[in-house]
Amino acid sequence: GHTDVVRSVAYFPDGKHIASASSDKTIIIWDLESGRQNGEPLRHDFGVMLKAISPDGRRIVGGTKEGGLIIWNAVTREVVHEIKGVGAYRAAYSPDGHWIVTAPIANEREIQLWDANTGRPGREPLKCEDNVLCVAFSPDGSQVAAGLVDGSFRVIDISTGESAVGPIKGHTEYVSSVVYSPDGRLLVTGSSDQSIRVWDSKTG
């Protein structure tokens, strides 16, 4: 359905739809049962590098390496908020849909929280020891896990900005993806060192 590289893909909460983001400057929503495109694509000025879907499935965040985050209404396809000049490697919604967390390209050793309802920064950036490539909210929304370029990960308490776990280095190359298990007990990291590791999210 795309005319260029597909950068990311994700399920909607209903499990009946997926969204794909591409370098062809579009995000396409697909019906899984029929395999057909659902409505018109969401369009960006640049190739879309990342995507996050809100817990209620009504909003999608898309962004580009060149800078700029856009929050679309997934139903009406209208732009809800546009955050200009902010490039990000990854983004994720909090479980309650109130926050969006990003791994920014410009300030690579910081994690930024955004108010999903206003598109404005929600608090002071969370600091890390090395460049951040990926982020994920814990299922209870109290913590953010971050994967770093040096092969480590850490878990940060968003209420205090302090480290809850780590940094822990288990990979020999950069951590490109991080995700929690649904019950929050486990944290999974994927790396360019060709390995996936499973961690106890509370003890590391």
Automatic annotation (TrEMBL):
Designated name of the protein: WD40 repeat-like protein
Organism: Leucogyrophana mollusca
